[in-house]
Write a structure and sequence with these properties.
Two copies of one chain form a homodimer. By secondary structure, chain A is of the alpha/beta class. Chain A is globular, with a radius of gyration of 31 Å. Among the domains of chain A are: about 1-95 and about 190-195, Immunoglobulin-like (Sandwich); about 100-175, Methane Monooxygenase Hydroxylase, Chain G, domain 1; about 565-650, Sandwich (Immunoglobulin-like).
Chain lengths: ~650, ~650
């Protein structure tokens, strides 16, 4: 203790204290997240003992560049705040510095001195402080300070002294140039800055092999045929299940049958065969050149291809033969297949991340991602990241981002909350959520309040999916189309990033394999080629198109933090709003897909930024109907047969 | 990143994670606080990736002794908890360790295997794990594990295998002795353990010089004459303003007059004269031997003397001459007196803690505290600690506690909240609070909820004072005796530690020097010898005696964390309870000192631990009246002319 203090003190007692700096994830162990153009609003408590004033600055930089420094604003009660805009992609650092502000302390007490002799004497103390600042200044600043110091030291006219002490300009310089003795610095903190799509993205998932419209195996070229339609619906990410050769050994049949029949195409997640592994392309989809064409073709339409990273192998994956050490063995010497007793997944070998040969393994896995990145892919959806070690992901994402900081990773971890949060902290840009299973008013309100307002929002960005090829949630099993509409509206307006297993959602595919027993689809597309009649009557394409259009038009829907819920007097009516500056979107959803519901909404006008007595107009962007509203209480009635929701833009004044 | 991981991994991927360990003050920078016999309940999140189970232990020790280790209890959702009792005074350390629990993971999955061949094979994996545990065991534990491993490896009867896998005793040993590969450890955290009085104390402040009952200067012997009465009232700490020689130079007169008249005794806080400084005793109080007698005399009555540590000097303090460097100079070479422009305190020189000679200065100040500690004093009330550098207090308290961990420090920092909290973190055992100015129902509820429930309770222990020699709060200026009664009840029952400027509170001294302008008393005892007629009719001695008796009888009132407020339908009726196991105290206070108030209390029976439909009896420990109550709603009426409050003990069943 003695030594530490003695070392820290040198010749003065450093007494400024910085506490409670935010944003801060686990004491600085992890970075906060932002996208380009966003602000980082930094707050802290900073103070010194007694009545000593302190100065506080925020320093920030894109990593490996020089520091910028701005003064922090004093908020009262020892609180400080400053903000900086992150205008380039990549890691940024920030730190708070605080030191006793002797100049300001002097000035504040000088102004209270009423006794002439007392003030004259105090002025000489001020002169010493200003002279010390002058020694740190140059050019015209130095001249100003030197002149001020000499007035404070020598002037005998008390009026002129007071005038000199009131010189805001000169004293601003004196404070800025003052020595920072007795100061301290916060822990170094960081922000990962990504491109905007990390925050605002609209995903469409489909199987390329099911794009011919008949039973033939689709190719990348067939997929490209669908791009105009997908782009017209307003999607910006086209996410493909694994595109690699599918294992033949132990291949699963339709409906997950243990034995495949001749002609069964198998699951794309059973990766690898004699034709190649994670960097190869399934022959019937096309060539490497076709893939590059696909990527370019998507880009031309304002979309990106997202690939699936599923680090597991079919038994005939080349690695099984080339690197047997990368797989755990059972006591009989056979390779340990995936299992969750009594279930066995003999068609999938998990990778042994703690293999003795882990260094080569990890690098091979990194090279898989790097390969596709070099093929033009900048978004990866990672399959089950929670079943692989945490340090692996932190390392892999760091390696990839060092080469290309534009790369976005989506974590498909449907698991316990703390594990999902840990993966987000480690670097995943976005995360799948529990939205898929949150259907009631209270649970939606609670969950989205957590997602938008808890401190975890600094690192956990939700991406909400009503369905996936793995998940036909119980509440959508055999449910009417109107239920799918409700879920589409909720996902599109509650979350800045959302996605869908597209063809199934467009058509309201609701047939479960084992109703109420599992969330598997009947005749799941995971095991067969599907023919989707996308023009079938009653499809959701118009609604989805409209929703995605509204999302593009309204900045309010492009970020998550402004979400506010508004009470309603009906347990089936959910009302919420988002806001970005003057852009306001207010949504009222009827959660009951079968019955008309109506009720009174009590608006939290403050969260909308609307003065209590100002009239405003709400325009339903789904129906184009507009209503004049006023005050907090307003009536809503929604018929699921017509429209699941109002998605209002709000026009004030 | 690569290197860090490579270093950490060695040959396996360490994947267990520990987050959010509590208690934890500023990430472990400061210690939490407890008193002997209390528990430290440690919680954390701990988990590994995927479905891997983890084991979690809490390790703790009195510093410099060996570690004890106990398993943590799994609470679900990756939360863990364990508790240890701190049974000796001094610093303790604790840390959480977590590692993948392969044994338990194996056992859990083995139980789910239904296929015989599959189970036989899996048993051999179990055998390997148990054998690894056996290698860490000895004696009979080793024998048990070796036998178990050999059954799992070789037994061909599936029934016998399952029986072996169900052996709780053997597997508990296997888990305990398992290698902790892939594990991790939390940051090292600490607890400062003090004696019980740090948490539960009852303070009486008086000026020794005002104890003769007439205008003569009192001595330690006169003070001892009062000890029986103070002890009979139930106090356990007698706190004395500074007992040192009082400066003659610039001495203040009565009512803080700039010039003293002949015979004026001066302020005890203007410390030091030619007769001595901070280790000397004011001649008229007595000798060092008299002081030691005083300390022993208090102890015989179950009380302790608390001294005042006021690190400032009168102009004629010996240090001013001997160590001029320890005081800041003004530009004219004179010593800087204390000031808060336009106010000047020419009778007090602040010490310059950042003096060039600070090392010698700090040691001298430490020696002052050490001197009185060696004279038998183990409680210090520190005057204005917030006007001295934070590092100084951390160092000083550490030095003193290293010599005698029984020493208790009370921080008299009536300043901004974050400064008060910082001092508490640095080591002060107790802190003065804003209670003195919290009078309304809402503000009392809010403030005491913060004190008892916020995380700051881990380090900030309140000591509540209705008045001090410096503070006759506005709400007590010219207030009736009943108002003083209300404040006494609140302090004694809301806070486990409370104190009073005794004679003034006993008599309801309510005369301000400048009503509504300052909080100074008229004819303040700080500047003159007072004659207190402590037997005057209407004094508070019976109430105070009763309150302190109730505090001693009821463990519920001896700690702060159990405080719960109960709603009432009258803004002047405050109702709250405290609980320690089966001991429950429920208080209803009429905050209106002038009018009868009545209303309905809605009890939070859960916080009292009373089943909803169980009848209970409340016995007013002030009046001895008892009432049968039932359910949540109960009626209360309080006449301030008779009693300011009910202080009920609650008897269930």
């Amino acid at each position: 203790m003695n030594d530490r203090l003695a070392g820290a003190l040198v010749e003065t007692a450093p007494d400024a204290v910085i506490e409670n700096v935010k944003p801060q994830v686990d004491g600085g162990r992890f970075a906060a997240k932002r996208v380009v153009g966003e602000s980082v609003v930094v707050t802290c408590d900073a103070f010194a003992h007694g009545h000593e004033k302190v100065a506080c600055v925020l320093r920030y930089r894109p990593r490996a560049q020089g520091w910028s420094e701005i003064p922090m604003e004093f908020l009262g009660n020892d609180r400080w705040r400053a903000a900086f805009v992150v205008d380039t992609i990549g890691p940024w650092d920030y730190v708070v510095q605080c030191w006793p502000d002797h100049v300001e302390s002097w000035r504040e007490s000088f102004a209270r001195r009423i006794d002439r002799d007392d003030a004259m004497l105090a002025a000489r103390t001020g002169a010493q402080l200003v002279a010390a600042s002058a020694a740190n200044a140059s050019g015209s600043e130095r001249e100003i300070l030197t002149r001020l110091a000499s007035i404070l030291a020598d002037e005998r006219d008390i009026g002129k002294l007071r005038a000199a002490a009131a010189d805001e300009t000169a004293f601003a310089i004196a404070r800025r140039r003052a020595p920072r003795e007795g100061g301290c610095e916060s822990a170094a903190l960081s922000v990962t800055v990504e491109r905007e799509r990390a925050r605002f993205s609209t995903w469409y998932e489909l199987f390329p092999r099911s794009t011919t419209g008949d039973s033939r195996h689709g190719s990348f070229a067939d997929l490209e045929e669908r791009f105009d339609a997908i782009a017209a619906m307003g999607f910006d990410v086209v996410y493909l299940p694994p595109i690699h050769p599918i294992g033949h050994e132990k291949r699963k049949g339709r409906n997950n049958a243990t034995t495949a029949q001749p002609g069964d195409v198998g699951s794309p997640w059973a990766i690898g065969s004699a034709e190649g592994g994670h960097t190869a392309i399934h022959r019937e989809l096309g060539s490497a050149s076709d893939f590059r064409h696909l990527v370019r073709s998507a880009k031309l339409r304002g979309m990106e291809i997202a690939l699936d990273i599923a680090f597991q192998c079919a038994p005939d994956h080349p690695w099984v033969r080339e690197h047997p050490d990368w797989f755990a063995k059972r006591p009989d010497g056979t390779i340990q297949y995936a299992e969750n007793p009594p279930k066995k997944y003999q068609d999938i070998y998990p990778i042994d991340f703690s293999s003795k040969d882990w260094r080569a393994l990890w690098q091979a896995l990194r090279d898989v991602v790097a390969h596709w990145m070099r093929e033009g892919v900048e978004i990866f959806r990672v399959d089950n990241p929670h079943t692989k070690p945490f340090p692996f992901w932190e390392w892999l994402i760091g390696e990839i981002r060092a080469e290309n900081p534009r790369v976005i990773f989506l974590s498909e971890a449907f698991t316990r909350p703390r594990v999902m949060h840990r993966l987000a902290k480690l670097g995943f840009s976005q995360s799948y959520t529990y939205f898929t299973w949150r259907v009631g008013k209270d649970e939606l309100t609670e969950y989205f309040t957590e997602l938008s307002a808890d401190e975890s929002r600094e690192y956990f960005r939700p991406n909400c999916w009503p369905n996936t090829p793995d998940i036909l949630p119980y509440h959508l099993q055999n449910a009417p189309l109107s239920a799918f509409r409700v879920r589409a509206v909720l996902a599109a307006t509650l979350a800045a990033s959302y996605g869908m297993y597209g063809p199934a959602l467009e058509l309201g595919e609701n047939r479960p394999r084992d109703p109420g027993e599992t969330e598997e689809y009947l005749d799941s597309e995971k095991y067969e080629i599907k023919r989707w009649d996308l023009n079938r009557a009653g499809n959701l394409r118009p609604l989805i198109t409209r929703l995605n259009h509204i999302r593009k038009e309204h900045a309010a829907l492009q970020s998550d933090w402004s979400l506010a819920f508004h009470p309603t007097d009906n347990a089936q009516l959910l009302c919420y709003s988002k806001r970005a500056g003057g852009d306001r979107v207010l949504v009222a959803v009827n959660l009951d897909a079968s019955n008309v519901q109506s009720g009174w909404v009590t608006l939290d006008l403050a969260s909308l930024g609307i003065p209590a007595d100002m009239p405003f107009t709400v325009k339903d962007e789904l129906s184009d109907a507009a209503y004049p509203w006023r005050g907090t209480r307003n009536f809503v009635m929604l018929d699921p047969a017509k429209a699941p929701a109002h998605v209002f833009s709000v026009h004030v004044g």
